[in-house]
């Protein structure tokens, strides 16, 4: 499948360009903004406040959205009614921006968008396509223009239609929408690291279209020219409708289904406890570990909590679990591990949650939130990766820990291995005091997440000092004992 992602702020010309690019390259174009607009329209029609998640969520449960193409033009039917004629009204822009900030809305739209893109060669335009919806897109473009230029374009568009509008009000509106779209909690407007930035301020539409096509073609050429997908793309004629689907192979479907199944947590942990009886003593023998501050883990027993830990090896994923948690602590494990029938089953029984790495995995996030909201415990590696160097330095922290802790009001328990766990040697694991990020509760801003992540890091650093001091003291005692 060919997936092209075009993101950018309101009024950068994405939809005009994406439509033209899709037409010229024989791809299907999906206007994802229209989906948010259709959702907002449906809410407004039902008299629902578009910012009220509690009212919008039940509406979504009954909302059936169908995207169809009539004479090549995208139409969005909601519960059988074509909403398309109403979506471009001026007031709909603000309503769509507001409703798009609700996580429940995003999850539903993103599922639909991924499903759409999985069976066609597509160009999607939006705010979060490259960062969130299609993180593996073949080509990502981030299109911008100055706010003044975007307001100007909108002004010309509306005045050409005979509407009288105030240019300054349009500019203020665009600036406000930019702010809303880039500061929401889930999948904010942001340039993906691997997206190509295209500033269209001084470019005509045709120039932008030509530029995007040349970028896409270069990108597709960079990929294996012999791959079935690219050769199909080359064969396509401009007018050909592209409904070709590369269905997943049976094996891929099975693997995918296995992973999917594991997002449904089974919260009966008889098996975990059963295993613990055997594996804990075995581990204690193989990797004897001195647990310092176990009372800190006990202080949060029986309630939701997030344990953060540094991560050196495959061993330390389960080692602290058996040592500390009499009941399970859920850990996150890469989704590929669940593709194997036995491995997936085993991890599942241990309470592991799959996570598709390199992308924002909504299923995984939902699963973690459910665990914590239900009073469960999670062990997480805030670095998001293994420290292969084996040094005491920790990589930059991901914001996940802070997000989960704030959203579910879970205390955080910082834990730290002194060094990579070694076979038959004494290992040290320090469990620090639980702390809460309560000063940020209710604050979903990017700034709050950054500050909260800094605090998690600081607490881990403090535990580092404690464990180093502990081990230094131990060694000193040992040396003194030796001298005697
Ligand atoms: O592109 P547009 O103006 O039609 O989008 C309407 C609103 O929908 C916009 O303010 C932000 C939101 N949106 C989004 O959050 N994610 C997308 N992929 C597309 C649009």
Index terms:
single chain; 484 residues; alpha/beta; 2 domains; 18 helices; 15 strands; 14% strand; binds 2'-deoxycytidine-5'-monophosphate
Your description of this structure?
The protein is elongated, with a radius of gyration of 26 Å. α1 packs across α9 (205-222), α2 (32-45) packs across α4 (90-100) and α7 crosses α8 (167-183). Residues 224-246 have low confidence and may be disordered. It has 484 residues and is α/β, with parallel strands linked by helices. The protein has a 7-stranded mixed beta sheet with strand order 9-15-14-10-13-11-12, sandwiched between helices. A 5-stranded parallel beta sheet has the order 2-6-1-7-8. Strands 3-4-5 form a 3-stranded antiparallel beta sheet, covered by helices on one side. The chain has 2 domains: 3-222, 3-Layer(aba) Sandwich (Rossmann fold), CATH 3.40.50; 250-483, Glycerol-3-phosphate (1)-acyltransferase (3-Layer(aba) Sandwich). 49% of the residues lie in helices and 14% in strands. It has helices spanning 14-25, 32-45, 53-61, 90-100, 103-118, 129-133, 147-160, 167-183, 205-222, 228-235, 250-261, 270-286, 294-298, 315-324, 341-349, 362-373, 400-408, 446-483, and strands at 3-7, 28-31, 65-70, 73-78, 81-82, 122-126, 139-144, 196-199, 289-292, 305-308, 330-334, 353-355, 377-380, 412-417, 427-431. Bound molecules: 2'-deoxycytidine-5'-monophosphate (DC).
């Amino acid at each position: 499948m060919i997936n092209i992602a075009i993101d950018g702020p309101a009024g950068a010309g994405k939809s005009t360009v994406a439509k033209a690019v899709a037409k010229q390259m024989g791809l299907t174009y999906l206007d994802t903004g229209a989906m948010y607009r259709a959702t907002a329209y449906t809410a407004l029609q039902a008299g629902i406040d578009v910012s009220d998640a509690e009212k919008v969520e039940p509406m979504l449960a009954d909302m059936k959205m169908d995207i169809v193409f009539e004479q090549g033009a995208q139409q969005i039917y909601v519960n059988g009614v074509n909403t398309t004629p109403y979506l471009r009204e001026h007031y709909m822009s603000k309503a769509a921006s507001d409703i798009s900030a609700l996580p429940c809305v995003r999850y539903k739209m993103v599922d639909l968008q991924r499903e759409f893109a999985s069976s066609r060669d597509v160009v999607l335009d939006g705010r979060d396509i490259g960062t969130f919806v299609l993180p593996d897109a073949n080509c990502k473009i981030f299109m911008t223009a100055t706010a003044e230029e975007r307001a100007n374009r909108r002004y010309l568009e509306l005045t050409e239609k005979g509407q009288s509008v105030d240019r300054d009000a349009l500019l203020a509106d665009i600036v406000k929408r930019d702010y809303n779209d880039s500061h929401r909690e889930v999948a904010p407007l942001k340039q993906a690291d691997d997206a190509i930035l295209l500033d269209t301020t001084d470019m005509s539409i045709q120039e932008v279209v030509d530029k995007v096509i040349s970028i896409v073609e270069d990108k597709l050429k960079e990929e294996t020219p012999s791959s079935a997908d690219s050769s199909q793309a080359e064969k396509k004629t401009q007018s050909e409708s592209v409904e070709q689907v590369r269905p997943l192979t049976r094996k891929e479907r099975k693997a995918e289904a296995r992973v999917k199944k594991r997002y449904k947590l089974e919260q009966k942990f008889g098996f975990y406890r059963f295993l613990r009886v055997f594996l804990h003593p075995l581990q204690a023998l193989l990797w004897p570990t001195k647990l310092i501050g176990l009372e800190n883990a006990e202080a949060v027993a029986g309630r939701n909590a997030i344990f953060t830990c540094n991560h050196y090896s495959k061993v330390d994923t389960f080692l602290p679990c058996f040592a500390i948690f009499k009941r399970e602590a859920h850990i996150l494990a890469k989704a590929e591990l669940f593709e194997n029938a036995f491995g997936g089953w085993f991890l599942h029984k241990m309470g592991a949650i799959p996570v598709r790495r390199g992308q924002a995995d909504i299923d995984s996030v939902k699963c973690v939130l459910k665990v914590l909201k239900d009073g469960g415990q999670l062990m997480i590696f805030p670095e998001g990766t293994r420290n292969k160097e084996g040094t005491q330095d920790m990589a930059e922290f991901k914001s996940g820990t802070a997000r989960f802790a704030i959203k579910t009001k879970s205390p955080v328990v910082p834990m730290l291995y002194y060094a990579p766990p070694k076979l038959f040697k004494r290992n040290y694991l320090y469990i620090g005091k639980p702390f809460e990020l309560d000063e940020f509760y209710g604050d979903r801003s990017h700034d709050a997440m950054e500050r909260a992540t800094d605090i998690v890091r600081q607490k881990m650093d403090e535990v580092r000092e404690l464990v180093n001091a502990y081990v230094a003291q131990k060694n000193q005692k040992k040396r003194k004992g030796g001298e005697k």
